[in-house]
Model the fold of this input.
Amino acid sequence: MQSKISVQNLSLTYSDGVESLHEINVEVIANAVNVFFGPAGGGKSSLLRAFNRLNDLADVRHLSGEIWFNGKNILEPDTDVIELRRKIGMVFSRPVPLPLTLWENVAYGLLLMGEKRKNRLDEAVEKALRLAALWDEVKDRLNDPASAISGGQQQRLCLARVLALEPEVILLDEPTSALDPVSTAKIEYSLLELKEQYTIVLVPHNVQQAARVADYAAFFLQGRLVEYGIGKQLFVSPKVKETEDYVTGRFG
Amino acid sequence: MNLPEYSRKMRQVEVLGINLLRLITLLTAVPVIGIIVFILIRGLPAISWEFLTQMPRDGMRAGGILPAIIGTVYLTLGTAIFSVPLGVAAGIYLAEYASDNATTRLIRIAIINLAGIPSVVYGLFGLGLFVLFLRLGTSILAASLTLSIMTLPVIISTTEEALRSVPNAFRVVSTSLGGTRWQTTWRITLPQAMPGVITGIILGLERAAGETAPILFTGAAFFLPRLPASPMDATMALPYHIFVISTSVPGMPLQIQYGTVLVLLVFVLGMNLLATLIRNRARARRQW
Done:
């Protein structure tokens, strides 16, 4: 196992004080599904949004510590955040198709990079949609508005949109929380396939999902990392009392 | 008083209240409809091909009002040239870039106050700055610049408002895919806000087209025997022409006055209608 992202002593506080992180140390393992789970408000989303510096858009009051990715601390001010976000893609909890066509949604990241060659874009769009298991369903309607497809399809479109940039890491923040069980299963299946090529960080929308897909799991509670380990072990025999209580459904 | 009786009373008050509000609302529409109907009845007989396409004759007591129509079109276009790029740019800056600090709050207050300044003050300001200090003379250019300053706050605030109504999730997603702020604005936010922006532009220009005071000292002419040939020429314009033929020309046929008012009214209400159509179409098409 090889570490892809290494978090060291990360602390973070928002101005409104709603969510924060305290002295987090955690590794994201390459080519595996890394699950960050725990009750709402535990800081999982904040950590994810620190990985691609999306927190830059939010009102962060305090940020300290280091996040190492490809031999560089990405919290340094001189980090090329545009480049970083292309390498670390993100899927959000609600599918947000951009108000464009399906094709434009998938090609969006590449268009922003200045790619103009239609055949290159077409290839990338098809490849990404196939990876996200959506190609067969939408190949005849790529010029339709993205809002015309179902919610589950939209979320796979959002995944394809990230995949089109061929990132190294994919962050998924409760990607199935707005989806039905069938769509959820499709996304989960995609993740298991994708981890061959990509590093996955998933905030699951419940413990069951965490247990189903986790290669490595980290349990967050009120901004602290309570327990971290290999998924199978952590869910079967947690070492810490709080983890056990949460995993067995005693709270949360 | 027992309960059924009480609730019957309450229902009566309710019905009375609603009908009163209905009546008052209806009454507010009466002046607008009254003005339009009255002007139509009195003005329509004056409208003819000749009236719209000929120069005035006999000291403006006969002939057409072509130079005033052309003048108003020029002034509106001139105003658009200056106020649209500046206003939209400022609106984009305020909505997408400016952080919420003392400076931007000051700018917002300034813009709001700009909208509250009486139009005659704009006229005098334009006279001082553009006509005299910048030596533009009384000209279409000076009048357009003056009208632009008056129109700017409308365009800036509607642009900002339209951009702010675009869901923030689009910005977050675009940023997460490696979009810069400008790319996000240009590809997503601005196109989504465009109907609102265009509505604001039209409403701003519509106000400019109907104003008299700001052009009074800066570009409007009492009478010109020919059409303006360059932006440095003064011009006749519909609002000022109406003022002139109503107050300063003895023996002016009433019909021409009503006809001229009707043309201005159609011009301004036409722009208003266009703005409404654009807004409604955009609302029907919107995906969020």
